[in-house]
Amino acid sequence: MINKINKKVLYREILDYVMIAVGMLSYAIGWMVFLLPNHIGNGGVAGLASILNWGQGIPVANTYFVLNAILLAIALKVLGLKFCIRTIYGVVMLTVITKVMGTVFP
Fold first, then answer.
1. Predicted confidence (pLDDT) at residue 85 exceeds the cutoff of 60
2. What is the pTM of this model?
3. Which of 34, 70, 73, 102 has the most crowded Cβ, counting Cβ within 10 A?
4. What angle (nearest 5°) sits at the alpha carbon of residue 50, between those of residues 46 and 54?
5. How many CA atoms lie within 13 A of 70 on its CB side?
6. How far are the Cα atoms of 3, 42, 62, 87, 95 from residue 52, in angstroms, in the given order?
7. Cβ–Cβ contacts within 10 Å for residue 72, how many?
8. Count of domains for the chain
9. How does 16-52 read in b/e, with b if 16+ C-beta sit within 10 Å?
10. Where are the transmembrane segments (predicted)?
């Protein structure tokens, strides 16, 4: 019985991380293919990264990662470790995907 529950919990956790990765891939495609080339700003950290890219030429992946690292350091105390681990995973996935897409779609 316990083994069955553990498998179910593990499956759910893996599915959560796969869905986060799929969501970040979808977001990165929209951001890198549609928003950035057409100088359409979005909100939040991604919007700040876009503005710094257009104005200063700083790569969006680097800015996105650094700004989110600062915010996550603060959020760790407030929101807890489980939330931050999933968020860090999402931030890292989006950073890696945008870095790769930056070489494909310069």
1. yes
2. 0.81
3. 102
4. 170
5. 6
6. 50, 13, 10, 23, 16
7. 16
8. 1
9. eeeebbeebeebbeebbeeebeeeeeeeebbebbbeb
10. 14-34, 54-76, 88-105
